[in-house]
Amino acid sequence: MCFGIQGRLTYTSETARSPCPLLNALANHGYLPHGGRDLDRDTVLGALEDAVNLDRPLSDFFFQAALSTVPLPNATELSLHHLNQHNAIEHDASLSRPDAFFSSHQDVFDPSIFAETRAHWPDPVISVRQAAAARLGRVQTSNRTNPAFELNRAGAPASVAETAVYIVAFGDVEAGTVRREYVEYLFENERLPFDLGWQKSKFVLTQKHLEAMSGRVVAETDSLLNGVGIRDATTDSQSPIAGDEL
Description:
This protein has 246 residues and is mostly helical. It has one domain: Chloroperoxidase, CATH 1.10.489.10. It has 8 helices and 8 strands; from the N terminus they run ββαβααβαβααβααββ. The chain has a two-stranded antiparallel ribbon. It has a two-stranded antiparallel sheet with strand order 3-4. Strands 5-6 form a two-stranded antiparallel sheet. The termini are far apart. Residues 1-12 and 231-246 have low confidence and may be disordered.
């Protein structure tokens, strides 16, 4: 069961949750089993289709990536807490979670982190450029404050997808816009914004939609940086976190 304390969600030891607000929302609504444990492929793919109309190939891509975090050979099921593994899907510079260097609770929403993110959304409708600015702001803060900051070849695409997904799933795919209140509701409540009038997409969302939106986020980020990349702070990599590495 989950209980609200001062407007925040907390969970009992019987529930498993992830760094992903969307997956947590699916469990909170019952599209996934509320406990968030022992989730097989058909369950996850069906939940993503029913809740946000993601097509099965794209959902399967996400499931296989998530399955790689399970510390068992040949696993066919996962629990949401497995996704807390650092630098697999979970990554530094999250929009709503602290970096792993500062906390081991990436499954818990952090209002102060999200306050920094939402400061880049001044309008009722978030544009791709504002979404990219919010993500870039978190990357810059993390890079400046976290001595172990890293966006590796798994974390960097996941970071971009984190932004692209909320536009694709909750906004206008063609315009590249999304109502700010929908996104805030998702992150802060870990529930789908039905209460605000949101409805799932009437057409199936595919990998093409996600890749196109990710490309727009990267392009806007490059524009905001004026071609000056932010460098990874790890000692073994000096790849600029821009372009293909963003």
